[in-house]
């Protein structure tokens, strides 16, 4: 599973677009930490762990 989510630098919204923010047209970046590989098979497990820890909702 590839991580397709991008975040806008200007307004902070998340989007699946890769060119620019659909809301304000701002620049996008990939918000996930670089130590997490997009191909990581344990990404779902880590998501659950972070969810439990209250890091993300
Ligand atoms: Zn934006």
Architecture overview:
It is built from 1 helix and 3 strands; from the N terminus they run E-E-E-H. It has a 3-stranded antiparallel β-sheet, with no helix packed on it. 19% of the residues lie in helices and 12% in strands. It has one domain (6-53): Rubrerythrin, domain 2 (Single Sheet), CATH 2.20.28. It is α+β, with helices and mostly antiparallel strands. The structure holds zinc ion (ZN). Zinc ion is lined by residues 8, 10-11, 13, 21, 23-24, 26.
Quick overview of this protein structure:
The protein is α+β, with helices and mostly antiparallel strands. The protein has one helix spanning 43-53; strands at 6-8, 14-15, 28-29. Helices cover 19% and strands 12% of the residues.
What is the topological layout?
Layout: E1 6-8, E2 14-15, E3 28-29, H1 43-53
Antiparallel strand pairs: 1-2, 1-3
The structure holds zinc ion (ZN).
- By secondary-structure content and strand pairing, the structural class works out as alpha+beta
Sheet of most strands:
3 strands, antiparallel
Q: Tally of extended strands? A: 3
- CATH architectural label: Single Sheet
Number of helices: 1
Beta-strand residue fraction = 5-15%
The Rg value, from CA coordinates, equals 13 Å
Estimate the helix proportion, in percent: 10-25%
Sequence of secondary-structure elements: EEEH
Strand order of the largest sheet: 2-1-3
Mean pLDDT: 82
Bound molecules: zinc ion
CATH level 3 topology: Rubrerythrin, domain 2
Q: How many separate domains?
A: 1
Give the N-terminus to C-terminus distance in angstroms.
Answer: 20 Å
CATH C-level category: Mainly Beta
């Amino acid at each position: 599973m590839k991580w397709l989510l991008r975040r806008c630098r200007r307004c902070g919204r998340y989007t699946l677009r890769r060119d620019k923010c659909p809301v304000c047209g701002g620049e996008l970046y990939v918000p996930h930490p670089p130590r997490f590989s997009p191909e990581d098979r344990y990404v779902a497990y880590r998501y659950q762990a972070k969810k439990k820890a209250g890091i993300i909702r």
